[in-house]
Every structure is written in structure tokens, then in C-alpha cells.
Amino acid sequence: MLVPPSATYLDNADLLIAADCVPFAYADFHQDLLKDKILLVGCPKLDNLEIYQQKISQIVKQNTIKSITYAHIEVPCCLGMMPVINSAISASGKDIPFKEVVISIKGEKIK
Predict the structure, then answer these.
(1) Scanning 59, 65, 86, 102, which has the fewest C-beta atoms within 10 Å of its C-beta?
(2) Is the separation of the CB atoms in 66 and 12 below 8 Å?
(3) Measured in whole angstroms, how far is the alpha carbon of residue 91 from the centre of its chain?
(4) φ, ψ for residue 78 (rounded to 5)?
């Protein structure tokens, strides 16, 4: 919520959008997922998804985004961010590679 869409570090970035519980659940978060990426964090269950929709859409429209990875826990509430990200990519009209990473409730990478 605090990242300005015009932040210079977003241009030509590989984005990692992570549900806020992922870094706590996945011990290899920094080495495996975060390396060479710009991190955006949020909770699709407790935060306002409409604000995330607007923010991610602005970021994608205003910057050259090389890729987006969404890392989340395998629980249903984490899936709420998927349509937000997909909608932002679609609305931008850009061809941005998208990858989903799923972490189990036991802290293992399962997808």
C-alpha cells in the first residue's frame, strides 16, 4: 500500500508479490523467491483488495514490468490476490510473464 507506482525501482523490475505470511512460512524465501526481485507484500484476506487492484494496475501501466511472481500459502484466502494480479496484467495490454508459487502450510514449496 505504501509503494508509489512511480517509484524508479519498479521500472524494468521482476516483481514478487507475496502474501504476507509467506516469508514466515517458507524458510528459503529470501534465497529462493526474493533474489533479484522487487517485493510487494499484502494480505488478500485482511487487506482491501480494491486498493490493491488500483495500485497493482497503476504499477503495471506506469512501468516496464519484466515478470510477476505471486507467492502464497495453499489456503483459500490467499487465492484472492490472483484475480487482482491477472486483471491488472490483462488491463495493461502488456505481455507480462506470470508465475504462481504455492507454499504448503508446512512451509514447503509445492508449486
Answers:
(1) 86
(2) yes
(3) 16
(4) -70, -20
**How does DSSP assign 40-72, residue by residue?**
EEE-TTTS-HHHHHHHHHHHHHHS-EEEEEEEE
Distances (CA, A) of 111 to 3, 57, 96, 108: 28, 25, 20, 9
Percentage of the chain exceeding pLDDT 90 = 92
Q: What is the pLDDT, as a whole number, of residue 42? A: 94
Pure H helices in the chain: 22-25, 49-62, 81-92
Read off the pTM: 0.94
Q: Quote the radius of gyration of the chain (alpha carbons, Å).
A: 13
